[in-house]
Amino acid sequence: MEKQELIAKINQVLADEFEVEQSVITPDADIKSTLNLDSLSLVDMVALIEEEFGVKIKGTELASVKTFGLLYDFVFERMA
Amino acid sequence: MLLKDYYTITSQSTDSESGATLFRIRLNGGHEIYKGHFPEKAVSPGVCNLQIMKECAERIVGKELTIKTMAQCKMPAMITPDGTPELTVSVKTEETADGWQTVASIFNESTTYITFKGLLIPEQQ
Amino acid sequence: MKTALFQGDDIAKLIPQRPPIVMVSHFFGATETDAETGLKILADNIFCKNNHLTEPGLIEHIAQSAAAFAGYNALQSGEKVVLGFIGEIKKLTINSLPAVGTLIETRIAIVQEVMNVLLMSARSTVDGQTVAECSIKLFMDR
Predict the structure, then answer these.
(1) What are the structural domains, with CATH classification, of chain B?
(2) Tens digits of per-residue pLDDT, B24-72?
(3) Chains touching B, CB cut-off 8 Å, 3+ pairs
(4) Fewer beta carbons below 10 Å: N end or C end of chain B?
């Protein structure tokens, strides 16, 4: 999957699941505040990304993944 | 009441805006369940809070009910009989062909402790 | 019946709950991702009514099964067993309420863990028939 395609897919999946407009999801935006995630729904987001993109994510690796841009890179690297 | 004297209902009213029934309740911190949950710190078991919401729904529909499905039940904060003994239970039921689609929550002035969305059916047996 | 790794009073090594709210009676074993537990329903169980275990009892059994799995993993790695609280239950279906005297067997699978939240899926059976299934999140107090 090309990176642009992956980014579009991630945005679509997250916007659908967490009921936000896709337009608010930008590379520099903070994931938690944009999607209104608390510690419970953060786990849902990780499980959703794993399921949709067939990647394995360790919870501890996510601490530094704060923005959507970092999330795109994170998933892209693991799919490559 | 499944757990005898676990709580008492002190008043009941209707929220004119949402149509939900509101029950003011008071937890009994002396209940035996707190001996085991937990010995060093009394915390109201989440499933007991769930049971309170179900028993309030039973009062509304006038029948004994069973939880058949639960789309979601969130417990974002802990209820403790010492810290938060006085609470409000809000319950709204809608009768359908399958049973009662029910939305409920328990909260006080500052915090929502549990929310429930599910289907209740008449008790079997 | 299968042999259990922990049962009776030894369950207290895996979970912080104590009587009258101990809702796991057997811990059959675990792999890295899955565990199997059981609850023999006794007549004096506080969540029993009309000779059956009610929904809060069944759900508490599932939650404590998840906690027992976390506790087992903690023991294996030499850590302390901590308090766990239900954070969320989703997609719960209850097919039937098991009768006093039966053994509920529950399979717990870890789906994900982020920070102090554990996401698990659970299926409980009696004699091979599914009585309840759900996905459950626990807050681990560590």
Answers:
(1) 7-122 (3.10.129.10)
(2) 999 999 999 999 999 999 999 999 999 999 999 999 999 999 999 999 9
(3) A, C
(4) C
Alpha-carbon dihedral of residues C141, B87, C120, C24, nearest 10 degrees? 80
- Does residue A56 register a pLDDT over 90? no
Residues of A in contact with C137 (CB under 8 A): 40, 43
**Which conformational region is residue C128 in: left (phi greater than 0), alpha (psi within -120 to 50 degrees), or beta?**
left
- Domains, chain A, with CATH or none: 3-79 (1.10.1200.10)
Give this prediction's pTM.
0.93
C26 residue type, one letter? H
Cα–Cα dist A35/C57, whole Å: 34
Chain B partners within 8 Å of A38 (Cβ)? 76
Between C87, C111, C113, which is nearest A40 by CB? C87
Strands in B37-108 per DSSP E: 65-74, 86-95, 100-107
What is the SS3 assignment for B13? strand
* Domains identified in chain C and CATH numbers: 6-140 (3.10.129.10)
Subunit contact B37:C54, Cβ cutoff 8 A = no
Measure B61 CA to nearest chain A CA, in Å: 32
Q: What is the ipTM of this complex?
A: 0.96
Does the beta-carbon distance from B47 to C16 stay under 8 Å? no
- Is B66 in contact with B98 (CB distance < 8 Å)? no
Q: Place A62 in a pLDDT band, splitting at 50, 70 and 90.
A: confident
